[in-house]
Design goal:
By secondary structure, this protein is an alpha/beta fold. Helices cover 36% and strands 16% of the residues. It has 3 domains: 290 residues, Endonuclease, Chain A, CATH 3.30.870; 227 residues, Endonuclease, Chain A, CATH 3.30.870; 40 residues, no CATH class. Strands 1, 10, 11, 12, 14, 15, 16, 18, 19, 21 and 22 form an 11-stranded mixed beta sheet that branches. A 7-stranded mixed beta sheet has the order 2-9-7-6-3-4-5, sandwiched between helices. Strands 8-17 form a two-stranded parallel ribbon. Helix 11 packs parallel to helix 12. InterPro entries: PLD-like_dom, PLipase_D/transphosphatidylase, PLipase_D_fam. One of its GO terms (molecular function) is phospholipase D activity. It holds the Pfam family PLDc_2. It comes from Variovorax boronicumulans.
Length: 683
C-alpha cells in the first residue's frame, strides 16, 4: 500500500463546537474524496438517480431494455465481450435462450429498435495476445469456429450442433464488425502498457514484498478491467451503468443461486468450473442518470480515442468536450426526486502521474467506519489495507481517551468479509496474510503450517550457528521466501482466538470471514448411483464399521461418503467488488481489494453517500445471504448490530459443519475455509 494517510491526505480539517460538560463534539462525515489537487479529477456530483441491481439476471435485463430504447449512441467499455451471451433468459432451452449481446447491439446499429434510424454503437474491449488467450475473454475474436475449420475436409459434414452454432455466431459477428460491414457498429481493443504499470507500481510500498513471479505477472499481464455503459449521452434521456459484471456468459445468474440452473448454460458456453465456470455467480451493477454520467462518459471517450483504430470496423474518434464542473443540462432534465450524490473513482496507470482514486477512497472511507464495515469482494488480498484499518481504529480510540471516555463508550466496529475460495492456489498466500490480520489465519491451516515450518527451520539453523563454537562449520540457512518473510514481519504465528480478542480489546473490532455456498436439494436423485453403491458396500460381508480400514473396506466407504457429501454443495462464485459502511456510504464497480486493482489494472468504481440507498442495498444483500433471516434491521444501533453479527457468525460456523456432513445449510453463508497451501504468490 502506498503511504496514504487519510487524516492528512484526503480529509478536510474542520472546527466544531466542543461541549464543555461532556467533552464531546458533533460533526458530519466526509465520505467522498474532496480535497483540492488530485481529487479535482474526481468531483462529487449531487444531482443523480442511482439504481442498484444484484446479480446478472436483474442487471442485464435492464441493460437490454435500455439498449432497445437508445436513440443516438451506445458506448461500452468491457474487460471481455461474448457476442453470444444472452442478456435475457426466460427459458432453459439450448442457446440462444433470449436476446444476445451481438443481436441487441447489431439491432440498435441497424435501427431495428429506433424506427429505422441507426444508433451509433462503440465497443471497447481489453485484448492482449497472452492474457486473452489464457482467459478467453473475447470468444470468437480472430478465430474460426471448430466446425468451420473441420468442414472443408468432410464430404458430407454433419449439421452444426448447438455448440457449433454458438461458436459460428461469435466468429462471424466479430469478423463482420472488424471488416466494417456494419457502418454504425465499431470495435476497438486495448492492451496493457508495461511502462505505465511499472511507474504506478514504483510508488507502492507493497511493491517491496513482491516475489519475482508475482512482479512479472503485474508487469506483463496487466488488464483493462473497467466495465461501463453510456447510452444517449447527447440525447433527451441519457443513462449509463457502472458494473462489476463482465459481458461474458458466465456472469448471468439469479439471486436465488440455484445449485443447477439450466439457464446459466452448458459448461462449454463459458469457462470451466476450475476457471471458475458456469457455477452460481454473485455481482452487482449500478444504473446511473444525472451529472455523474459525465465522468463515466469522459472515461470512455478518452479511452476510445486513445485506443488503436485498426481496420475498417474501428470507427472514428469521438469529438466531445467535458467540463465536469458544468455538466450538460440534458443530464439532469428527467431526474426524479430525491437525488443522490455520487463520485466516480478510477485506477488508471496510463494517466499522467497515474490515478489511484479507488485506492484513496478505500483508505479514506474506513476512517469513518463506526458500526459495521461490510466487504464483499472477489479478492480479499491486501493485508496492508487491514493494517491501515487497525491504525485508524487506534487513532479513533486515542481521540476517545483524550475526551476522557473509556472503552465501554467506544462503539464496536463489526468487520464482515464475504469472499470466495481463491480461484488459484497461488492466491492462497496473499489471502492468508489478509485474513490472518483479522484473526482468521486458521481458516487456511495448511498455508500457516507450511510457512511456520519454513520459519522454524530457518531459526533452527540460526540458533545452531549461535551455539556452535565454530559457526563457520554450519552453512547459513537459505534466505526466507518472500511469503515467509512477510509472514514473519507481520508477527508470525498467531492464535486466532487470542488475535480476535486482541482486535476487540485494542481496537474495539469484531471480525468474521465467510463464503457463499448453495445446496443440492435434489441430492437423493442426483446421487442415486453413488448412494446405491455405498449401500451395497455397507451390506457386503466385508464391511466392518470398527475396522481401521482395508482394501475394499471402511476407508473406501468413508472416501465415497465424503465425496457424496462434498458434491451436495457448490460454491457461489463471488465476483463482487462491494463495500458498504454504516448505512451511510457504498462503493461498487470493477475494483478488487488487492494491489492489482489499486495500482496495476485500469478500474472504475462509483461511490455514494446516500444513506437510503446504502441501507436498502445492505438490507437486500444481507437478506439474500441469510435467506431473509438476518438482514440487519437498524444496523447503526450497537445492540442490533451485535445481535446480527452473532447470528451471522453462528450461521456461518454451523453451515461449515453442515457442509462437512453433507447436511442442508440454513442459508448461503459458510465460514471461510481453504486447506490448500502454496509457496508461489500471485496477486
Amino acid at each position: 500500500m502506498s503511504d496514504l494517510r487519510p487524516t492528512n491526505d484526503t480529509q478536510h480539517r474542520s472546527t466544531v463546537p466542543l461541549c464543555a460538560a461532556t467533552g464531546t463534539a458533533t460533526g458530519s462525515a466526509q465520505w467522498f474524496l474532496e480535497k483540492r489537487g488530485e481529487d479535482e479529477k474526481t468531483p462529487v456530483f449531487h444531482h443523480n438517480n442511482l439504481r442498484l441491481y444484484i446479480c446478472g439476471e436483474e442487471t442485464f435485463k435492464q441493460i437490454a431494455a435500455d439498449i432497445r430504447k437508445a436513440q443516438h449512441s451506445i458506448d461500452l467499455v468491457c474487460w471481455g465481450f461474448d457476442p453470444a451471451m444472452e442478456l435475457t433468459r426466460e427459458t432453459a432451452d439450448q442457446w440462444p435462450r433470449g436476446d444476445t449481446w451481438g443481436d441487441l447491439l447489431l439491432g440498435a446499429a441497424q435501427g431495428k429498435f429506433n424506427n429505422g434510424k441507426p444508433v451509433k454503437v462503440r465497443l471497447l474491449v481489453w485484448y492482449d495476445f497472452i492474457g486473452s488467450a489464457a482467459v478467453n475473454n473475447m470468444p470468437g475474436y480472430k478465430t474460426e469456429s471448430l466446425y468451420e475449420r473441420s468442414k472443408p475436409g468432410l464430404l458430407f459434414p454433419p449439421s452444426p450442433s448447438a455448440r457449433d452454432r454458438r461458436e459460428i455466431f461469435n466468429s462471424h459477428w466479430y469478423r463482420d464488425v472488424v471488416a466494417g460491414k456494419h457502418n454504425a457498429l465499431s470495435l476497438r481493443t486495448r492492451g496493457g502498457v508495461h511502462d505505465d504499470v511499472m511507474t504506478s507500481l514504483r510508488s507502492e510500498a507493497s511493491m517491496n514484498g513482491l516475489g519475482r513471479i508475482e512482479r512479472l505477472g503485474f508487469e506483463y499481464l496487466a488488464t483493462h478491467h473497467q466495465k461501463t455503459i453510456v447510452i444517449d449521452y447527447e440525447g433527451d434521456k441519457p443513462c449509463g451503468y457502472v458494473l462489476g459484471l463482465n459481458s461474458v456468459t458466465d456472469y448471468w445468474d439469479t439471486t436465488a443461486h440455484k445449485f443447477d440452473d439450466p439457464r446459466r448454460g452448458k459448461s462449454w458456453e463459458g469457462a470451466n468450473d476450475a476457471e471458475p465456470g458456469l457455477k452460481p455467480y454473485q455481482d452487482y451493477g449500478c444504473r446511473v442518470e444525472g451529472q455523474v454520467l459525465a465522468a463515466v462518459c469522459k472515461n470512455f471517450t478518452e479511452a476510445w480515442n486513445k485506443a488503436e483504430a485498426n481496420g475498417k470496423g474501428a470507427g472514428s474518434n469521438v469529438s466531445r468536450e467535458f467540463n465536469l464542473k458544468a455538466t450538460p443540462a440534458n443530464l439532469t432534465k428527467n431526474l426524479i426526486a430525491p437525488h443522490q450524490s455520487a463520485q466516480i473513482l478510477r485506477t488508471s496507470p496510463a494517466t499522467d502521474g497515474s490515478e489511484k482514486s479507488i485506492h484513496r477512497l478505500y483508505n479514506h472511507a474506513i476512517s469513518f467506519a463506526r458500526h459495521y464495515l461490510y466487504v464483499e469482494n472477489q479478492y480479499f488480498q491486501h493485508a496492508a489495507w487491514v493494517k491501515e484499518l487497525k491504525r485508524l481504529r487506534a487513532e479513533y480510540l486515542a481521540g476517545f481517551q483524550k475526551g476522557k471516555l473509556g472503552m465501554a463508550d467506544v462503539p464496536k466496529l463489526h468487520v464482515m468479509v464475504v469472499t470466495p475460495t481463491p480461484e488459484r492456489k497461488q492466491m492462497v498466500p496473499r489471502t492468508h496474510d489478509t485474513v490472518t490480520e483479522l484473526g482468521h489465519g486458521s481458516s487456511m491451516p495448511n498455508q500457516a503450517k507450511m510457512v511456520e515450518g519454513e520459519i522454524a527451520r530457518y531459526e533452527a539453523v540460526q540458533e545452531a550457528r549461535r551455539r556452535s563454537r565454530d559457526p563457520l562449520m554450519i552453512p547459513p540457512p537459505q534466505p526466507l521466501s518472500s511469503i515467509a518473510q512477510a509472514y514473519k514481519d507481520a508477527g508470525g504465528a498467531k492464535d486466532d482466538e487470542m488475535a480476535r480478542k486482541a482486535l476487540e480489546g485494542q481496537f474495539a473490532m469484531r471480525s468474521l470471514v465467510a463464503s457463499l455456498w448453495t445446496f443440492d436439494t435434489n441430492w437423493q436423485t442426483t446421487q442415486r448411483d453413488g448412494l446405491a453403491k455405498l449401500d451395497g458396500w455397507k451390506k457386503s460381508a466385508n464391511y466392518d464399521p470398527n475396522s481401521p480400514g482395508y482394501a475394499g473396506g471402511i476407508n473406501y466407504i468413508r472416501d465415497l461418503e465424503n465425496q457424496l457429501f462434498k458434491a451436495r454443495y457448490r460454491e457461489i462464485y463471488i465476483h463482487s467488488k462491494l463495500m458498504v459502511i454504516d448505512d451511510s456510504m457504498f462503493t461498487l464497480g470493477s475494483a478488487n481489494l488487492n494491489l492489482r486493482s489499486f495500482a496495476v489494472d485500469s478500474e472504475i468504481n462509483i461511490a455514494s453517500d446516500d444513506p437510503v440507498t446504502a441501507k436498502n442495498l445492505r438490507e437486500r444483500v444481507w437478506g439474500q445471504h441469510t435467506d431473509g433471516k438476518f438482514a440487519g434491521g437498524v444496523a447503526t444501533d450497537q445492540k442490533v448490530m451485535h445481535d446480527t453479527f452473532q447470528k451471522w457468525q453462528k450461521a456461518a460456523w454451523d453451515n461449515l459443519l453442515n457442509k462437512k456432513k453433507g447436511l442442508r445449510p440454513s442459508c448461503f453463508l459458510v465460514a471461510f475455509h481453504d486447506d490448500r497451501a502454496s509457496s508461489i504468490r500471485l496477486g
